[in-house]
Amino acid sequence: MIFHQPVLLVEVLGYMNVARDRGYFCDCTTGGAGHLLAMLQKTQKAKFLGIEWDGDAISYAKNRIKPYEERCFLFEDNFINLDLILDRLGIKYLTGILFDLGVSYFQLTTAKRGFSFDRKGILSMNMSSKTPSLRQKLEHTSRSALIAILKEYGDVRSYRRIGSEIYENRKKMITTYDLRQLVENVTPKRFLHKELHKVFQALRIWVNNELENLKRGLAVAIERLEPKGRIVVISYHSGEDRIVKNTFRQMDKEGQIILLHKKVIKPNEDEIKANPRARSAKLRVGERCVLS
Q1: What is the pLDDT of residues 158-173, one digit of tens each?
Q2: How far apart are CA 124 and CA 149, in angstroms?
Q3: Do 62 and 37 form a contact (C-beta atoms < 8 A)?
Q4: How far, CA to CA in Å, does 43 sit from each of 10, 17, 62, 79?
Q5: Which pTM was predicted?
Q6: For residue 99, what is the enclosing H or E element?
Q7: Rounded CA gap, 99 and 78, in Å?
Q8: Which of 60, 205, 264, 273 counts the most CB atoms within 10 A of its CB?
Q9: Which residues does 184 contact at the CB level (< 8 Å), separation at least 6?
Q10: How far is CA 134 from the centre of its chain?
Q11: Phi/psi at 161 (5° precision)
Q12: Residue 75 in contact with residue 49, Cβ under 8 Å?
């Protein structure tokens, strides 16, 4: 089973400054523990927290980090609750914080999760079984809201028409193939693959409240960084990256963090060749200022 091949791993290890081998680090989006395991292997004394709201991923990650369980603690939770987790543990500040955003390979390829238009499954799309599914959310939304979601979260070409079709057929749609068929019926063939990707992506972001959670999560994370502590964020969607960029720039202006790179960091051609899904990855990093 492969949850997610860690992207920009060399860069993450360097910018997270794990070589300091002290304090507490937090992987706020643990997934299958790819980045987390690599950081554990590079250290001997530092302690780690892993936060992940996908129960399947937490179960998988627990097995992977078993040799390091004395200094690694996992939590099935949303990273917006980082404050609560740290307070519960009596931890005031973190040495490094990582966010690797988006959906994992495992989630995309597990049909029952409903994330992929290439696999037939129930229209779930929720990262956590404790939150409403797409089908449940569609029961309580409006036509105008759906149209806005497709436009803002997915830049869908025919957002008005597809949004209206989803609204009209929301009670009939049961599976991912039902949604796919609806999009196919109103989309020219030459635009179909890209449009399907954008529709499914937009609905997933909406179901999981991903962009609002990111705004809240970044604010809490930066507040809990120790002086000279690092925050590293990998995003795959323009909306995510815009939030990270704007948050970091604002915090830089306010003297809360220093931007270690003005420009975004991307995978090189060798990594993209080995892992094509890394192509859209963008990494940004900030360092907490020493407050006077």
Answers
A1: 999 999 999 999 999 9
A2: 17
A3: no
A4: 15, 11, 18, 23
A5: 0.93
A6: strand 94-100
A7: 12
A8: 205
A9: 192, 196
A10: 18
A11: -70, -45
A12: yes
Identify the burial level of 44 via C-beta atoms within 10 angstroms of its C-beta, where 0-12 means exposed, 13-18 middle and 19 or more buried: exposed
pLDDT in tens, 73-99: 999 999 999 999 999 999 999 999 999
pLDDT one-digit tens code per residue, 204-214: 999 999 999 99
Token pair for 203: 């609905």
Contacts of 102 (CB under 8 A, 6+ apart): 235, 236, 237, 240
Reading the block at residue 12, the tokens are 């993450």
Side-chain half-sphere CA neighbours of 57 within 13 A: 31
Residue 13 reports pLDDT greater than 70 = yes
Residue 129 identity (one-letter amino acid): S
What domains are defined for the chain?
A: 9-105+210-288 (3.40.50.150), 132-207 (1.10.150.170)
Phi and psi at residue 202, to the nearest 5°: -60, -45
* Strand bridging mode 24-27 / 47-52: parallel
Q: How many residues does the chain have?
A: 292
Find, among 290, 248, 284, the residue nearest to 11 by Cα: 284
- Using alpha carbons only, how large is the chain's radius of gyration in Å? 20
Nearest to 99 by CA among 78, 84, 129, 114: 78
